[in-house]
Amino acid sequence: MARFSPFEDSLWFATAAPAPDLPSLQGEHRADVCIVGGGYTGLTTALTLAKQGVKVMLLEAQQAGFGGSGRNAGHCTPTFTHFSLPELRRLLGEPWAERLIRRQTQANHQVSAMIRDYHIDCEWQQNGYLQAAARPGAMKLIEEKARQYNAVGAHTEAVDAAQAERISGSPRFYGGWFHHEGGHLNPLGYARGLARAVGQEGGEVYCASPVSEVKKQGTAWQVITPQGHVLADKVIFATGAYTVAGWPQLEQSFRIMRVFVAATQPLDAALRSKVLPLNTTIHDGRGDIYVYKYNQQGRIVASMFPMGRRGREMNYTHQVMSDRLCWLHPAIGQPLRWDYFWYGELDMQQRTIPRLYQLAPGVVALTGLSGRGVPTGSMLGGILAEWALDMPASELALKIEPLHKAPFWMGFGPQLTLRYYRARDWLRCRIEGAALPPHA
């Protein structure tokens, strides 16, 4: 557990609705399905199964949302960041690609419905997402992206520079891709609300119950924790980047990539009317990703990937984040104070698509979300629930694969890719005469 940053450092921990009072596992229990991991994937799986009358028990080593589900930046964008939809179809083949595309692009409807139906207190705002064009030449790709997503039922559009400025408050963009269904929330509050919802539907969630081993016992599986165990017909691992034990070599199926998130002081109402006036989520359009939005208190919450000194030296990191934000929004015109700073860990896969592994008959694991975030973790619960309810493997939205190690180069490949994107952006902006932000 040493690689994980303190959970208590985050804005979300300071502001989320209180956690439900969930006990640790004590003694012997029997269940139809035992889920390991209390993030979005595990919780939505448990919720879906409990609604179907399945006796489901979920075991979490810490507390609900302790991992990436409670540490992410809180934006909820039902897209595929790395691949275009035609590229996904070539990569995954049919019918797998269309099934996954349908689930992912409709995921925000599911998130919104769960928040509404279970009255989850999580600062949910569905005011859209803007992926900006940082240079004129990006607009051609954005127009094609809008066409592709709209063809599968999403509500998106390519917007010009004036529209992008109206949405974002930034004069730096040449246009952008506006996804009307995008949203943002307090991710820890959402996870805690899902845990409550599982209980409302009759499922059981146990915290402070780390799983040390899963072993066969007769026709069932015994899931062992320090103070008790569950005997279950089926077991699902949904521990993602925070996998530390429970099944041999599962933690080697991905590689960790860190991301950091920071939050400013609350901005006054007059400034907020000029900076992010529509309370949208903004991606500044660069491969060296900078994504930001407001929280309920009027703080700007921004995220980046560590690179060199950035993410390691705090004063320098705060300066980089302030300089980028003030360049994007000259209206800020004042020093920014970063009141919160924390890290999350991503379970990276070379395809950046979640992988569903068959560990043994009746035991599966899902890892490799690769930073896909709130909507992906939420929609995956439906896929895992369908597996638990005996849907034929050929009909699932993810192909079941044998467990295998992530290739060694995944340990450094994502960082090299970020550096390549940064250099490519610099060159293209120079060629097209587009302005470059500080530290580009």
From TrEMBL:
Residues 32-387 form the FAD dependent oxidoreductase domain. InterPro entries: FAD-dep_OxRdtase (IPR006076), FAD/NAD-bd_sf (IPR036188). The keyword Metal-binding does not apply. Its EC number is 1.-.-.-. The keyword Oxidoreductase applies. It comes from the Bacteria. Gene3D superfamilies: D-Amino Acid Oxidase, subunit A, domain 2, FAD/NAD(P)-binding domain. GO terms for molecular function: oxidoreductase activity. One of its GO terms (cellular component) is cytoplasm. Keywords: Oxidoreductase. SUPFAM superfamilies: FAD/NAD(P)-binding domain. This is FAD-binding oxidoreductase.
